[in-house]
Amino acid sequence: MGITHKSDRIDARPGSIASFDVADFPVPHGREENWRFTPLARLRGLHDGTAQPGGKVAVDIDAPDGVVVETVDRDDPRIGRTGAPVDRVAAAAWSSFAEATVITVPSESVLDRPVWVTRRGESADVASFAHVVIDIAPFATAVVVLDHAGSATLADNVEIVVGESANLTLVSLQDWSRDSVHVSQHRALVGRDARLKAVHVSLGGDLVRIAPSVAYAGPGGDAELWGLFFADEGQHLEHRLFVDHEAPHCRSRVTYKGALQGKNAHTVWIGDVLIRAKAVGTDTYELNRNLVLTDGARADSVPNLEIETGEVTGAGHASATGRFDDEQLFYLQARGIPADEARRLVVRGFFHEVLQQIGIDELEARLVAKVEQELEGHGV
C-alpha cells in the first residue's frame, strides 16, 4: 500500500471528526470526551477562535549534510499526507499557518548526527500557529529532535512520514517557560517494514497538550511511543495517543511514565489503540505509570483497546498510579541513604527506562539535570 494524500486516507477512528476545515468542529465546552480533562479557560482562545495569529516562534535547524530543509507555502503537495486534523485546535492551526517547514532525509541516507530543530517562543501574549513536515525517504535512517523553549502560546501540527524500510527516532521535548501554552497534534504514517520510535518529553509550560497518532501505510510497520512527563504545582500536562492498526502484521508499543508534585499538578494520559478487521497479525501493548510525589496532585489515566479481529498476535494494556514504594525507600534507608536522597533515587530509577530510549548523551544528561532541578525545587 502506498502513501496517499489528504482525503484518500482514513484520518480518524470510527465516529470521530477529521477535517481540514475548522468550521467542521464545534467549539468545545469541556463536556466532550476529548476535551473533558483539559482546562479550556487556560487555552487562551486557541479552541474557540478568539486567539489571533501574530506571535513568533523562531526556528533554528542544525542538520547534517544531505538533509534538505525548506520553507514552503501551504499549497505544497507534501503537506497533508498523513491525514486531517482531528480536533478544533489542530484544525485552527492548519487554517492559520502561513508557511511550513519541511525536513527531508533522502533515500538510503544514514545520518551521522541528529537533525536538531530548536523552536523558541518570544512571547506568550499573542498566539502562534505552525506546521512541520518530517519526511524520511525509503531505506533512510535518522534521528530528529524537536526542542521547544521560551515563552509561547502555540498551536501546531507535526507530520511524520516514515518511508518503506526507513528508520526514524523522533524526540519531542517540551521545555517551555512556565507561562507557555502548547497544543500540538503529531500524525505519523509508517510505511511497509518501516520503524518509528517517538519519545515525547513534557517538563515545562503552564498547559501542554500533545496528541501523537500513528497509522500504517503497509504491513510490517513497527512503532514505539515513549513518554516522560513531570508536572509541578499548577501545571497541566496532557498526552492523548491514538494508534490505528489498519494494515496487517504491524507492531506497536506504548510506554509513558509521569511524576507529579505540588498543589493542582495535573497530568492526563489517554491511550487509544484500534485494531481494524483487516489488521490480522497485529502485536500491540500500551502501558502508563504515574508516580504521585505529594498531596494535591492528580493523575488521570485512560487506556482503551478496540479489537475488530480475533486474529492478533497480542493485544493488551495496563495503567497504574501510586505513591513512592515504601519498601524501596526502607531498603535504601536501611543502607545508610538519607530519606531525601532515597526518594530522588526512586524517581531517577522510575524514569530511567524512558530516558535511555533517547540515545543522545547530551540530551539525556540535560533531562536528568532538569528532573533533579524539579525535585530540588520542591524539596523532595
3D structure, described in words:
With 380 residues, this protein is mainly beta. It has helices at 88-96, 326-334, 339-355, 361-378, and strands at residues 57-62, 68-73, 99-105, 115-136, 141-162, 167-174, 181-190, 195-202, 207-216, 222-231, 236-245, 251-260, 266-275, 283-292, 298-307, 314-322. It has a 16-stranded mixed sheet that branches. Helix 2 (326-334) packs across helix 3 (339-355). The radius of gyration is 20 Å and the shape is globular.
User: Low-confidence runs (pLDDT<50, min 5 residues)?
Assistant: 1-10
Strand content: 35-45%
Integer-rounded radius of gyration? 20 Å
Number of helices: 4
**Secondary structure category:** mainly beta
Quick one: overall form?
globular
Which oligomerization state do the chains in this entry correspond to?
single chain
End-to-end distance? 52 Å
Main beta-sheet strand count, sense and barrel state = 16 strands, mixed
In short:
14% of the residues lie in helices and 44% in strands. It is built from four helices and 16 strands.
Describe this protein with a few key phrases.
disordered N terminus; 380 residues; globular; 4 helices; 16-stranded mixed β-sheet; mainly beta; 16 strands; 44% strand
What's the structural blueprint in terms of helices and strands?
Blueprint: E1 57-62, E2 68-73, H1 88-96, E3 99-105, E4 115-136, E5 141-162, E6 167-174, E7 181-190, E8 195-202, E9 207-216, E10 222-231, E11 236-245, E12 251-260, E13 266-275, E14 283-292, E15 298-307, E16 314-322, H2 326-334, H3 339-355, H4 361-378
Parallel strand pairs: 3-4, 4-5, 5-6, 5-7, 6-8, 7-9, 8-10, 9-11, 10-12, 11-13, 12-14, 13-15, 14-16
Antiparallel strand pairs: 1-4, 2-3
Helix pairs in contact: 2-3
